[in-house]
Amino acid sequence: xxxxxxxxxxxxxxxxxxxxxxxxxxxxxxxxxxxxxxxxxxxxxxxxxxxxxxxxxxxxxxxxxxxxxxxxxxxxxxxxxxxxxxxxxxxxxxxxxxxxxxxxxxxxxxxxxxxxxxxxxxxxxxxxxxxxxxxxxxxxxxxxxxxxxxxxxxxxxxxxxxxxxxxxxxxxxxxxxxxxxxxxxxxxxxxxxxxxxxxxxxxxxxxxxxxxxxxxxxxxxxxxxxxxxxxxxxxxxxxxxxxxxxxxxxxxxxxxxxxxxxxxxxxxxxxxxxxxxxxxxxxxxxxxxxxxxxxxxxxxxxxxxxxxxxx
Length: 311
Hints:
Blueprint (H helix, E strand, L loop, with lengths): L3 E7 L13 E6 L2 E5 L5 H7 L9 E3 L11 H10 L6 E6 L3 H8 L10 E6 L3 E4 L7 E6 L7 E6 L3 E4 L1 H6 L5 H9 L1 E3 L5 E3 L4 E4 L3 E5 L6 H7 L4 E5 L7 H7 L4 H11 L3 E5 L11 H8 L5 E4 L5 E3 L7
Parallel strand pairs: 3-4, 4-5, 5-6, 14-15, 15-16, 16-17
Antiparallel strand pairs: 1-2, 1-18, 2-3, 7-8, 8-9, 9-14, 10-13, 11-12
C-alpha cells in the first residue's frame, strides 16, 4: 500500500516565527497528495521535506486569511514550471472566488491547464473525487470570514476469515469471487455468503479543522476519525480572545477529540504570543480532557496514520 501520512509544512497562526512557518499540510494517501492551506513559504518547506509539486493532487483552502492561502501563487506556478501533468483539483470557499482568482494569477508565468477548480458552498458539500480511493466532504465552520473544514474518508471494507473460508471449502479464485459477488457455491454445493466468512473493516478517516469556534461542524467533521488535525491557537487562559477572533483553545480541541472518539489528535496553528518553553501547555491542557494520543507538531514533522481498526 502507498504511504498514508501527514507532513507538517508550517504550524504557526497569523504571524510566523523563526521556528514555525505559516500553515501548510500535505496528506499523502495512496498516491494522492492533499495540500491543505498552503501559507507563505510552503513551496520551500516542501523542498525541505523532500516533497515536490508532482506529489500534489488536491489543494484545499479552508478560508482566505493570508496565513492559510498566501502560498497558493507559488504552488500553482511551481506546478506549472515543473510540468505536472495530472489534474490538481482546488477546493476553496466559493464566496472567496475573487481572492482565489487573484492568488491563482498573482504574477506573470507560463500558465498550466491542470488546475481544476472545485468551489465549495452551503453548509455541507461532497466534492467529486473521481476515481480516488476516498470521499472528501467540506463542512461550514464558525469564523469571522466564511471557512470550511474537510473530512477525508476511505470506504469500509472487509477482512476475510481464513478459518471460516476453509470450513466452507472456499479457496483459490473462489475467495476473490466471494469478495466481488458477495456469494459463491461451497464445496458441498451450498451457498456461501461474504457475511459468513468476513468481518467489517472500517475505512480510515482524517479531519482537517482550522480556524473556527466550537460549532456543530467541528463535531461532525471529527466524528470517529483516526486522525484529527485541528487548530489550537490559544491556551485556556485566553479563551475570551479565542472566542472573539473565532479560534479554539487547546482544551477545546481536546474536548472535541474526546467527544468525537478520535484516535490521534494533532495540535497545530499556535499563536506567536506563547514562547517555546510554554508550548507544553497546549499538550497539557488537551490531555486533561482527552486520553488518547496527542501530537503537538513542529514544522517538517511527518506523522503516520494510526494502524487500522480491526473492526
